[in-house]
Amino acid sequence: MGAGAGSSGGSAFSVRWGESMAGTFETVGVVGLGTMGAGIAEVFARAGLAVTGVEADPAALERGRGHLEGSTGRALARGKLTEAERAEILGRVSFTTSLEDLADADLVIEAIPEVMDYKRALFTDLDRVCKPSAVLATNTSSLSVTAIAATTTRPGRVVGMHFFNPAPVMRLVEVVRTVTTDDGLAGEVADLARRLGKTPVTVGDRAGFVVNRLLLPYLNQAAVLLENGLAGRDDIDAAMRLGAGFPMGPFALLDLIGLDTSYEICEVLFRETRDRRHAPAPILRELVTAGRLGRKSGEGFHRAEEPRSPSPHEKPSAASVAVLGEGAEEFSARLSGAGFKIVDPEGAELVLALSHTPVVERAVRLPHPDRLVGLHLVGDQVAEIASTVLTSPDAARVAHGLLRIIGRTPVPCRDRAEFVVDALLYPYLNDAVRMYESGYASIEDIDTAMKLGCGYPAGPFETLDRLGLETVRDGLRALYAEYREPSFAPAPLLDQLVTAGVRSIRDLAP
Ligand SMILES: NC(=O)c1ccc[n+]([C@@H]2O[C@H](COP(=O)([O-])OP(=O)(O)OC[C@H]3O[C@@H](n4cnc5c(N)ncnc54)[C@H](O)[C@@H]3O)[C@@H](O)[C@H]2O)c1
């Protein structure tokens, strides 16, 4: 299996060829001018297409017009558009509350709320109003495109066209073809996305497509680990930002996406996969029920205006430190250079056990097990500090201060397999391998989707190469042994590659 191989949206069932194979899209309709629709209308208009924006009622239509004027106005203020360009863009968009005005559109994209009954009703109407050759696209994030297509008499002309927020800025578009989509149509829509200046990734109709399918389980797991008391909210956020290089920590991102939306997407994933990891974390349900939806409601995991938790800045009082584990010599030298006295573990006031696996076994072998903490250096900025059930609060505090002094962000956590960063990162990488292995998307498409859709500095396969397949495989085994979570078991392909001594999964692709 190589790059671009396989798809769940196979063409074997596609029997009808579209009427406009030339695939010229000149007039488009956008239904729903909310957060996404207004942005999508702007994207089309910027690319020179004539756009008809449709809203449910005159008040919503005015709001939609306001979104577009506001967004292009900001672009003008920032010098990204001239006054003339802005006028041209706005001049290409007409506004209406009548679906009948879409009769001549070559393509209509739907961006109304994520409720299946609304989408079904709309697609039934669009099917009646639009010319037979028109392509009907949905911007749904998580609903079945196949089920939406099935409400029309033209399932062959229905695709998903999943833009990201904010649509004018985000380059990724996931083009979704179903088993009934006409051969070649997804390619035409992908060409259109390129014409809009976007980077399309074409995939089959699976819940969450590429980005949400890989992103939400990671965010959900962060919530589960928070509930389990592995580490604190801000510590997990800092660990993933500074340790994994993600642009935002999981809780900041959950608040941005909206906890209700995140909950719903997890539900949809769970319904399709029955994977326990996709079942929304109970804390998500609780926060949503309490009305804490994230930024949109003012507070979610974070409360607006909350005081930042004071970081303990006290100077560590440990006169003597011991370092154990791989890399102990080098790290001792570093501490010594910073003025700490390095001694044997038996007499040390603080024992740092360099490790990425639980350290309680080492603690119990010492005369003072309460003085030992696990220490995992992640990248060049983060230090995870694992307290065992025996660690004294004093030792943990001293370790915290010491790591700050040598310029690392301390991430206090419990003594669990792979601590924080790797416990969140490895299952995500494993999911990406499984996704590729199942033939859903190519390595390049998955990497591209995660970089452009989430702003990650590297795609999961690039990250795998950097960390080493064996390291990740072994980490997953440790996670599986600790949590007994079936989907933490290394993907068979990952296991086989390591066994075969293959260094990069890319070496498989032709
Ligand atoms: N918000 C995001 O970050 C995001 C990202 C990608 C995809 N999506 C998807 O895009 C779609 C829209 O999401 P949103 O966040 O823009 O929602 P939104 O609530 O901001 O906007 C929806 C708009 O649709 C209008 N509307 C409702 N019923 C209508 C009808 N029958 N005809 C015409 N207009 C109607 C509403 O008045 C509203 O303005 C959803 O399917 C969502 O899953 C959202």
TrEMBL record:
Residues 208-302, 419-501 form the 3-hydroxyacyl-CoA dehydrogenase C-terminal domain. Residues 296-319 are annotated as: Disordered. PROSITE patterns: 3HCDH (PS00067). Residues 27-205 form the 3-hydroxyacyl-CoA dehydrogenase NAD binding domain. Keywords: Oxidoreductase. Residues 296-316 have a biased composition (Basic and acidic residues). Pathway: Lipid metabolism; butanoate metabolism. One of its GO terms (molecular function) is NAD+ binding. GO terms for biological process: fatty acid beta-oxidation. It comes from the Bacteria. Belongs to the 3-hydroxyacyl-CoA dehydrogenase family. This is 3-hydroxybutyryl-CoA dehydrogenase. It comes from Planobispora rosea.
